Amino acid sequence: MEVLPENCCPKCKHHKLEFTSSEEYEEGKYYQVKCLNCGFEGQQHYNLIFACFTDNDGTELK
Q1: C-beta separation of 19 from 33 below 8 A
Q2: Which one-letter DSSP state was computed for residue 49?
Q3: Could you give the strand order of the β-sheet that contains 17-25, starting from the edge strand earlier in sequence?
């Protein structure tokens, strides 16, 4: 499976994507996208992983 750069069309490889909506699900989030170069429409998926806690001032708690 080819790994493409983020925000790159999987069909024509251009970086002209329009993001129209997003939706969260149990393990991640996806964005509905349309390529402004070739017209491809689909979803760009992301897996969410825990990174850290911060307080309300943005200080990372270890």
Answers
A1: yes
A2: -
A3: 17-25, 28-35, 41-47
Residue 17 near residue 11 (C-beta atoms within 8 A): no
Is the pTM of the predicted complex or chain greater than 0.85?
no
Cα 37-47-42 angle, rounded to 5 deg = 25
Residue 31 burial (CB < 10 Å; 0-12/13-18/19+)?
middle
Q: How far apart are CA 54 and CA 52, in angstroms?
A: 7
Residue by residue, pLDDT tens for the chain (62 residues) are 556 667 889 999 999 899 989 999 888 999 999 999 999 999 999 898 888 999 999 999 98
